[in-house]
From TrEMBL:
EC nos: 3.4.19.5
CDD domains membership: Glycosylasparaginase
GO cellular component: cytoplasm
Top-level taxonomic group: Eukaryota
Source species: Salix viminalis (Common osier)
Name of the protein in its database record: beta-aspartyl-peptidase
Catalytic activity: Cleavage of a beta-linked Asp residue from the N-terminus of a polypeptide
Active-site residues per Swiss-Prot or TrEMBL entry: 223
Binding positions for substrate per the UniProt entry: 251-254, 274-277
Length: 358
């Protein structure tokens, strides 16, 4: 009797862990999917992505729907049009989408006059052999492909924010080692001096940069970064942001950089990130996370390892990553702030928000 029961119990246990059905096209579909994960408590964006993927849309299309919802809602004032003015008071858009099955990427950066960042990024992936288009040429491409524009991406809020900053002598800002440092410019490089070391002449800039923690925070330097695993286990990621508030015009952060703000490989998993993009893009933390998981590291350790690599060099940086393996297991790690991320899965009736302590 015991010999008959044990195999049955084992079968039930395994079927609970790996619940699989076969779709109409003969492809195995895991009932642990679909899965939507997003940086921050952007619940409406996650719900939009969930409606798409739960309705049998692809992971790529679900990412577009989720990020687009955040652009329309202007999540945290740092996604989509109408937020994060640069030094000239203008809002520009950065966005990225990546298909973890094909490894195709589409991205736009410093895009003017077009509101739909994530849709523009998808058009780059869909209709070109390129990965990244920038500036006004990205805008012209997006409009030629059918997106609305040209539009003014500023809003009453962004103009008011920019005016207040100008009245405060453009402080704080992202300049360093310039004169004058306490005004709105025009700026000039400080004088350089030569320091002899071992018979060699080394050039040093004078001055001390202001701590970046005074320039970067959840509400002035943020991104929606979203990962979706669809019902067939296919993975895609996407991002959208209007970048750092009061950035130097032309600045591009890590939002449209594959491997930094997001990365996906269907055979391994995905990663989404947010924070100080100028620092984080130097380390490609999401590529690091996905590669670590490919080598067998669990998501929690992969996320922590990627953040620790940055913190060792830049102990004042603010940032966070979420690792999601191919089985849908997820975990976050952060540095410098308390971070939250959102998840919707078949196990929940609505979006669940997870809090990660630094």
């Amino acid at each position: 009797m015991t010999n008959r029961i044990l195999p049955f119990i084992t079968l039930v246990f395994l079927s609970t862990l790996f619940s699989i059905v076969i779709g109409d096209d003969g492809v195995a579909i895991s009932e642990q999917y679909p899965l939507v994960v997003s940086t921050w408590p952007f619940k409406e964006a996650v719900r939009a992505a969930w409606r798409a993927v739960d309705g049998n849309h692809s992971a790529v299309d679900a990412v577009v729907e989720g990020c687009s919802a955040c652009e329309e809602l202007r999540c945290d004032g740092t996604v989509g049009p109408g937020g994060s003015p640069d030094e000239n008071g203008e809002t520009t858009i950065d966005a990225l989408i990546m298909n973890g099955v094909t490894m195709e990427v589409g991205a736009v950066a410093a895009m003017r006059f077009v509101k739909d960042g994530i849709r523009a990024a998808k058009l780059v992936m869909q209709h070109t052999k390129h990965t990244l288009l920038v500036g006004e040429k990205a805008s012209a491409f997006a409009i030629a492909m059918g997106l609305p524009g040209p539009d003014n991406l500023s809003s009453a809020d962004s103009i008011r924010k920019w005016s207040t900053w100008k009245e405060n002598h453009c402080q704080p800002n992202f300049w360093k080692d310039v004169v004058p440092s306490d005004s709105c410019g025009p700026y000039h490089a400080k004088a350089r001096i030569d320091v002899k070391e071992g018979g060699c002449s080394t050039r040093y800039l004078m001055g001390v940069a202001e701590p970046r923690s005074s320039l970067v925070g959840p509400h002035n330097h943020d991104t929606i970064s979203m990962a979706v695993i669809d019902k067939r286990g296919h993975v895609a990621v996407g991002t959208s942001t209007n970048g750092a508030t009061y950035k130097i015009p032309g600045r591009v952060g890590d939002g449209p950089i594959a491997g930094s703000s997001a990365y996906a490989v269907t055979d391994s998993g995905a990663c989404v990130a947010t924070g100080d993009g100028d620092i984080m893009m130097r380390f490609l933390p999401c590529y690091q996370v996905v590669e670590s998981m490919r080598l067998g590291m669990e998501p929690r350790l992969a996320a922590k390892d990627a953040i620790s690599r940055i913190a060792r060099k830049f102990p004042d940086f603010l940032g966070a990553v979420v690792a999601i393996n191919k089985n849908g297991v997820h975990a976050g790690a952060c540095h410098g702030w308390t971070f939250e991320y959102s998840v919707r899965s078949p196990a929940t009736d609505d979006v669940e928000v997870f809090t990660v302590l630094p």
